[in-house]
Amino acid sequence: MKIGELSRRTGASIRALRYYEEQGLLSPERLPSGYRDYDERSVATVARIRVLLSAGLNSTAIAEILPNVVDDSVVLTGRCPELRDGLAVERARITERIEALVAARAILDSLIGRPLVIDPA
Amino acid sequence: MKIGELSRRTGASIRALRYYEEQGLLSPERLPSGYRDYDERSVATVARIRVLLSAGLNSTAIAEILPNVVDDSVVLTGRCPELRDGLAVERARITERIEALVAARAILDSLIGRPLVIDPA
DNA sequence: CTAAAGCCTCACGTTGACGTGAGGGTCAAG
DNA sequence: CTTGACCCTCACGTCAACGTGAGGCTTTAG
Question: How far A71 CA sits from the closest chain B CA (Å)?
């Protein structure tokens, strides 16, 4: 599929998709015309990219992670302990951010007057 | 207290503290010398600012919230429904981000090989 | 009295993830 | 065969939350 369709199917802007390629997160084929040609897996890949980006990982960190993900977020390849440690650091950062968000939400809740529900979200 | 001490006690850089003031998040008095003079409450205020910032709120959003927080994150003043709605929107955004982070962490966990623990964090 | 901290106000630099044209090919439809 | 609709590659612009001097007061320690 061409870039416009992928954009519509993922919600990512065309510029963003080209940017992801520039960062090595996506490597579409090229049609004789020079147009980018994405396969179906790209849809899932873009989804993962967006999740990780919104989680605060930068593109270089994602570039390290992506090649290790196959199918649907499966454990894979790379018994490289160096990468493992890097990921553990990222994981810790994410956990910190979750805690910050929960704290922030509590502040908002008290302002809104919402009862301090034990929200499963 | 002067800016250096507040910086040490909050972990925020001096530049950051001045920036918060520039954004209307902090309004220290001034000594005859022109030096900023912060009171004790500023310590807690800065802590709240940092929590909200790390939660992804921008300074203008925080500027709306802060005047409504007194003592320790207490429900207060402003029965203004317009603000309430704005806060509800922010809350929704935060919840979305928490979900994104949890999803991202799950991806990392599968890569690390960590068992998919029901982590209370 | 004299350094050495510490503080002040500009004001430009930085980083990441894109936005936004400029200028120009490609391709199905009428 | 000419519109549009899409696509391409530069390449500069943006926005937030600060970082980083430059140049110059003030206050504290000895």
Answer: 12
